[in-house]
Write a structure and sequence with these properties.
Layout lengths: L14 H8 L2 H14 L12 H7 L4 H13 L3 E4 L5 E4 L11 H5 L2 H25 L2 H16 L3 H17 L4 H15 L7 H20 L2 H13 L1 H4 L1 H11 L7
Helix pairs in contact: 2-4, 3-4, 3-8, 6-9, 6-10, 6-11, 7-8, 7-10, 8-9, 10-11
């Protein structure tokens, strides 16, 4: 996540958010991967991306990412396999609730929902302005990012492209008074990013493509509607929504 040295904007300093900031980088990686396993977003036997890709997606150094993976193997959440088809995989029978720091994320639901609503208000306005102001160069770069997400082999590579797409969309408005606050909200929300199934991410990218089509037509209403649906979906598909679902049913979500 770029810009980690930026101070958060006013309103993004709730106690729940501070709890995540107090986690060490190592514990944050452990908690995010373990919570994804607990919720079924990472399935038993699923191979994780390479350590460099995980480090980049979760905004930590490779050494930190490697130590986190090793410790999760020791905890029974992940396992290492050698030889062809090996690597770091989700354990066949992962032990749920092993990583206690997942509670920091589980208890931050209200703060994350407020962040999503903040992003929603900004992103609808961004989509409207971009439909009016985006240049051919803006549209070309956004299209390249959509195509790159289509080719992404895992959630780790997809996440980086997704972030660049949304920041580039904000830049297409030509308004620095929007890009600054929007970037701060996006960075704060990405502190809670978990690995997600590729089917869900491909569906998300189809919405990116729909948004791009609306921008090309300069259809402000359609652009705003796609942006609204794209962000509101986070209330159900981001981990805070999945936690609510699993609490109601008494089972872990499949993430589909």
């Amino acid at each position: 996540m770029p810009g980690s040295d930026h101070a958060p904007t006013t309103g993004l300093t709730a106690p729940e958010l501070s709890g995540v900031r107090r986690l060490s980088a190592l514990e944050a990686v452990r908690a995010r991967i373990a919570l994804a396993v607990d919720l079924g977003l990472l399935a038993p036997g699923e191979r994780l991306p390479g350590t460099p890709q995980i480090a980049q997606a979760l905004d930590v150094g490779e050494i930190t990412a490697r130590r986190a993976l090793v410790s999760l193997c020791a905890d029974g959440v992940l396992e290492r396999r050698r030889g062809r088809g090996g690597g770091t995989l989700v354990a066949a029978h992962p032990t749920p609730g092993t990583v206690l720091t997942t509670d920091v994320y589980r208890t931050a639901g209200d703060a994350v929902r407020r962040l999503i609503d903040h992003r929603l208000a900004l992103e609808c306005g961004i989509a409207h302005l971009a439909a009016v102001r985006a240049s051919d160069e803006d549209l070309s770069e956004l299209r390249q990012l959509v195509e790159e997400m289509d080719r992404a082999p895992s959630w780790a590579e997809f996440h980086g492209c997704d972030e660049r797409f949304h920041l580039r969309l904000a830049e297409a408005t030509g308004s620095s008074s929007i890009t600054g606050p929007y970037g701060a909200v996006l960075r704060e929300l990405y502190r809670y990013y978990l690995p997600y199934p590729m089917d869900a991410l491909r569906a998300s990218n189809r919405e990116h493509r729909e948004l791009l089509d609306a921008l090309r037509r300069q259809d402000t209403a359609a652009a705003g509607e796609v942006a609204r649906h794209h962000v509101e979906t986070l209330h159900q598909t981001m981990f805070v929504g999945l936690l609510s679902t699993s609490a109601e049913t008494g089972t872990a979500s499949t993430g589909n």
